[in-house]
Design brief:
mainly alpha
Length: about 425
């Protein structure tokens, strides 16, 4: 086999070698861009956390123990820490940004009314390792394998080659293995380098490599099946190009549109608008009505809910909380709908192996829909913890001392 592989490498045409070199270069660039993206995200997280520490000291000095003043101005950083395979398919930021600063005011408007990324940049798509693996590598594999037999037939050599002893083991297998192996190496070497840079756990890096091989294996089988058909090489190339177009683009896009039409969602902008309108309406409602609705959610503060005619922070934060409560059902329905859509997309993936590989790669990278939903859930949980930490100071009239500031909850999240 080794002698056959060396022979096939010497016979490999110049354009084919160039294609492998270009693919390796593209994969390397994609990995480098992914690593740079991950490094930038980590730098943003570190910068925001450091900024929050300095800012909190300034706000505490300005508030002088007033829990309302302190709670109004303080920003809390929340983030999605990139994992050791995030460079495969970095978080796009079109659903939920990787780093946010939230306040203990109404949260839903902060989440849903946030410009996560430039839509014009998102329109062009992201060039990452997953894109190279799932879209570009199959095209090169098709170009290298589609005329494995038809090219020899058109040159008038196929009958003579097939008549050689053990032609399958000595000729065709090394030829197919060399071409497919070259494509695999062009992807796996940059992947391994990226994993070493990130310190990726061997099992997780092996899982990523297995996904790359699974994608290439699928397209190798499809290509060899079509290549065996008695047809001109141009016809075979056209058929395989059509299959690639249908499997990677048309069918997934059509399924995506069908799933979205079948599972409608509450509009995020509408949720943010309703949240904002409910909060603004709190200024005009009778204070007693606002506090009664708040006490229904937090009965422990019933004895401290009375308000006067002057502005009071506890009343202000109460109608901020009621703004979130007003849209809680729509927000939960939206997240449930997104999860339901994703469940159907996952089912579709079992029918289209390249789609399933793409989904699995996003899961490994931590940029899948599930990661978005978990981050939003963690953000809401943290916001509630911080808000409820402040309520005893707001309703009990306790000063926000330095010890109280230091004792506030801090955001932490598992690496995705």
């Amino acid at each position: 086999m080794i002698a056959g592989l060396l022979r096939e490498w010497r016979l490999l045409a110049g354009p084919a070698r160039l294609g492998l070199i270009v693919l390796a270069a593209l994969a390397s660039v994609a990995v480098a861009l992914g690593l740079a993206d991950v490094a930038a995200t980590r730098a943003d997280i570190a910068r925001v956390v450091a900024l929050e520490a300095r800012e909190t000291q300034s706000i505490a000095a300005f508030a002088k123990g007033d829990a309302g003043e302190f709670g109004y101005y303080r920003n809390y950083p929340v983030w999605r820490a990139p994992g050791d395979l995030a460079f495969l398919a970095p978080t796009r930021g079109d659903a939920v940004p990787a780093v946010m600063r939230i306040r203990i005011l109404a949260l839903e408007g902060q989440i849903n009314d946030n410009e996560a990324a430039n839509p014009e940049l998102l329109l062009a798509g992201r060039f990452d390792f997953a894109f190279v693996t799932l879209y570009l590598a199959p095209l090169l594999l098709i170009a290298l394998l589609h005329d494995l037999w038809s090219g020899e037939r058109e040159a008038g050599r196929l009958a003579a080659l097939d008549s050689l002893p053990r032609a399958r083991q000595r000729l065709w297998s090394p030829r197919a293995v060399l071409r497919a192996g070259g494509v695999a190496l062009a992807l796996l070497v940059p992947l391994a380098v990226g994993g070493l840079v990130e310190g990726t756990a061997p099992l997780r890096l092996g899982a990523a490599a297995a996904l790359v091989l699974a994608s290439l294996g699928f397209w190798m089988i499809v290509t060899l099946v079509v290549a065996r058909v008695q047809a001109a090489s141009a016809t075979q190339a056209a058929v395989l190009a059509g299959l690639w177009f249908a499997i990677t683009l048309v069918v997934p896009a059509a399924a995506h549109l069908a799933i979205n039409a079948a599972v409608p969602l509450p509009n995020a902008a509408a949720i943010a608008r309703e949240n904002r309108e409910e909060v603004h309406a709190g200024w005009d409602r009778p204070k007693a009505d606002t506090m009664a609705r708040f006490v229904a959610l937090y009965p422990a503060y019933r004895a401290q809910a009375a308000t006067g005619t002057a502005f009071e922070w506890k009343w202000y934060f109460a109608f901020q909380q009621l703004g979130d409560a007003a849209v809680a059902a729509d927000s939960a329905a939206r997240d449930a709908g997104i999860a339901y859509r994703e469940a159907w997309a996952q089912r579709l993936g079992w029918l289209l192996p390249p789609v399933k590989v793409a989904q699995a790669m996003q899961t490994l990278a931590g940029s899948d829909v599930g990661a978005d939903l978990r981050f939003k859930a963690r953000t809401r949980g943290f916001h509630r913890a911080v808000r409820e930490y402040h309520y005893p100071f707001l309703f009990g009239g306790r000063p926000m001392t330095d010890a109280a500031v230091a004792g506030a909850p801090t955001f932490s999240t598992a690496v995705m």
